[in-house]
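haha ok so turns out i had the wrong file open the whole time. this is the CORRECT one, sorry everyone. sequence first:
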Amino acid sequence: MRIRAVTIQAAVAAALLSTAAAAQPTASRPWSTEGRIEDSDAQEGERRYDEHRVRLEAGRRYRLTANSEDFDPVLRLFAPGGTEPIAENDDSGGSLNSRIIHVPESAGNYALRVLTFADTGRGAYALRAELLPPLPAATAISLAPRTMTWTTFTGELAESDPQIGETRADDYSLYLGAGEEVIIRLDGAFDTVVSVYRASEREGEPAASNDDGGDGLNSMLLFRASEPGEYVIRVTALGEETGPYRLRIGQ
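then structure:
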């Protein structure tokens, strides 16, 4: 009978330990504990670890920290029943200690795992969970409208203009500095196409081109010069059409 009683008491103690309530940090009382990583602890790969349960509420901000003067700690957070960490940190705040700021999507008993960065890491650590105040509302700002100067040119594609492929073309040259941006808008009585070339590569492929980026069949293009130099803006039609157009360049 004595042996049976001891067996029952051990089983009850194990059951109570496994069903113990998880620690729950509050605004007035953070949760903390101390422990040691030993050779007898659970193993993840070649590294030893301890695991603690902590209750976290949905939508609340928590700061979770693991500090040690004996080894480089790594802190991992697991969702209830999860097998993969939902948050992890190694070094934080310019030290080897670990810190996680987390806002759970759902309430439950989460697992905090403290493990060593190095396989040989052993020693004491301190683990802490704090409930943080919510982030303050973001300051509303409004941006001042960007001032842009538009230069407008009017022209007409005609049969007398140079022929490029199947269409006629008018070219305009301008100098752009490195990184300088221009917005080019081309409106016409036909399906317009606007292209930008390096001045030395007018017979080659354009650096940028647009067909219907504007309203309807009109063209609009934002171009940024990769290097300083002369550039050519070419006005053409999608097909063989001709007619009046308006070219606007904004800076």
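The first strand starts at residue 31 and ends at 37.
again sry for the mixup
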